[in-house]
Amino acid sequence: MKKTFSYALAAVMTLTLLLSGCGSSNKDNAAQNNTPANTSGSGANASNEDIIKKHPGGQMIISPQLIGYQEAEIEITWQPNPSQSLEATSPARVDYLTKKMKAWIEEHPNVKIKPISTSNNSTDNMAKLQLKLAEGTAPDVAAVDSFMMPSVAEYAQPLNDAMAAKGISIDDYFPFMLSTMQPDGEGGDILSDWYTTDVRALYYRKDLISAPPATVDELISTAKKLQEDNPGMTGLIYVAGRNEGAVNNHLGIYWSQGFPLLNDDNSIAFQDGEAKTAMLNFLSFFENTVKEGVTPQRVVEFDKESNMFGDLTTDKYGMFIASSSAVPQIKEIVGADTFEQKWGIAELPVIHAGDAASSSAGGWTNVVFATDKQKAELAADFVLSLYSDDAAAGEWCEIGGFLPTRRSVYDNTPAFAEDAYAKQFASYLDQAQSRPPVSEYTALSSELQVAIGEIVTGASTAEKALENIIKKVGK
Amino acid sequence: MLQTAPNPKKGVVSRLAQGPVYWIAPLILVLLVTFVYPTFEVIRYSFTDASLTGKDYSYTFSSFINILSDSQVYQTLWTTFVFVFFSVVGQTVLGLAIALAIVKGEELKLRGTVFVRVVTLLAWAIPGVIIGVIWKIFLNESESGILTSMLHAVGITNVTFLTSAGSALVCTIIANIWRGTAQSMILSYSGLKTISRDVLEAADIDGASSWQRLIHVTLPSISSVLSINVILNIINTFNTFDMVMSLTSGGPGNSTEVLALTAYNQIFVHMNLGSGSAYATILLLINGLMAALYFWFLRRSGEDA
């Protein structure tokens, strides 16, 4: 029996080593991955151009499984954000992407794009992408949540040449994006292209509220008055379900007090002193809105913004906090005219009157991982042509309901230049911040999500919740 | 007459050919690759500080030490045990009740017993994530929520389902009972079908009431099946995370966070492979214990038969 067990254990160990070995060899293969046209030296460019333009014959396919000609010699793997790919549920997005992809393949017939299908769970997708990067099996180019980009930066290939070729200047982007796109600062390599963004704001019924509240106290008193004047109306709703939105949508309220979430060494910045008071003020926002009766406990049901939208069509809500992407979505539900008549937007309220408002901005970046020079160039050109260059950015953001990431796109695209909401959002982006792109923030955010849920449901007070967070994340 | 010495090599091969080795070798290989290897890796990672994002890690007991020193873990364990206990009781009792009703219906040759079986099994066929979404829609507390509007219609207002800690756990248990009753019903039904009619008729002749017949004849006759049923329900419920994830995400606060969800969050949200694997290993130990009990009952039921 002992002998049999020993043999079984030996077999498992051998298999483990063998399989681990397979993982390592993949990595080596990825590093040595070459295309047929990967040549260097003089005259290579002309030859590369010829190979790219060579028509492989057959029929062009634009599908979620393959983009290009089946027989094309150069293959690029692409992991898009599913909702921004041919798998999107919006026909307008699919039509736009199909048009753009067709045009790109016509220019590059000997290149085929192999999209990698993923789920809609971006947290899962990003975790799996990081695993692939560590194993050396990452796609040539991928859409990466801007918040996660710094964690994959060590594998990212420079986009400087590709962006220059498209006439895209780094100076055109909003300030908060620069540290993510160009981690080494001015003059350093551009490691990602931030191609869509959003920003958080207070939405208010402009037909009922003459001037939007600027502070949290004003917000509560305005909501109370709304409820008194309009029986059956709920003053304010927001996302408080256990998800990132519960934290991210409201972080601007904390940031407006001038304190960061994390110190330079990634320890939490609000363990004591004024920063601790600032965090207490932030958590008290949730406590007070519920305690004062302007926000129902039911907001813990909203773990996504879209969960609020059904309620918002009932005309029984005075204000809500959401990202800029709520505008096109609610317009689609209630109609653009109705939305524009009723809903105005304002900056997130601040704790102390006179403080500068702040907001959290997010969005998606494209990152090239291909180590093969030609593949990297082609991959960059492909995604920039789809989403980012002057011929694409405005139309893509308009169709997708995103905010453009470059100032010039706001000026040059009528849909944004003439849109009052877009202009306001653009001004908020100037003051916006992005969440700290480190794992310590993820741990902190999880605890904040739990705390917000407990505060809103009355299971904890803001003070107790804060002490609990410090105890757990501060160690 | 010359005698040829037996070829020892040929002997081994032919002995192996006569045995089950060749037959079960493919299965062993598949099990090694798809079960033993991943399990081994999870246990190995639980003794590391590995992150999903980093390449380097070292061997340490820190994951287990951190887990055991975190008071939240005991809260999660308590929530998990409450969730498992009431889910298993509910699933087993309801499954048995439906199975008894179906068997009785068949005895009385009532129409619709097959329909009842199919309807009950439907819940089993639906993925956990979808069940979570269905119950979330059902328990929505807005005026358009299905249950809320029904309660409003009869004058009941201000009822909370998923928006307070206590009621959220109760609702999660109810949703899980709904999900797991089908398996219990199938097992109980198969057990009930094995009871000899003679035994039941003898109890009738002796003047036993329906209740006495259930307690003193039916249940003892299917006790082994019920034990196995309970253990399978315990294992399934301990592993439940998909339904909880889509129904409550573990909230509000931590009120519905179960051990399997914590393991998932540690790995895929916090990218903490070492810690998540340690949680998974604890879950594996609990399930291993349950599996051992399962086989013990299985063997005992075999001996009884």
Automatic annotation (TrEMBL), chain B:
CDD domains reported in the protein's UniProt record: TM_PBP2
Entry keyword set: Cell membrane, Membrane, Transmembrane, Transmembrane helix, Transport
GO-annotated cellular components: plasma membrane
InterPro entries: MetI-like, MetI-like_sf
Protein's UniProt keywords contain Transport: yes
SUPFAM superfamilies hit by this protein: MetI-like (SSF161098)
Subcellular location(s) of the protein: Cell membrane
Domain ABC transmembrane type-1: start-end pairs: 77-294
Tree of life domain: Bacteria
UniProt similarity note: Belongs to the binding-protein-dependent transport system permease family.
Transmembrane segments: 21-40, 77-102, 114-138, 150-178, 214-235, 278-298
Membrane topology qualifier: Multi-pass membrane protein
Protein name as annotated: ABC transporter permease
Biological process annotations from GO: transmembrane transport
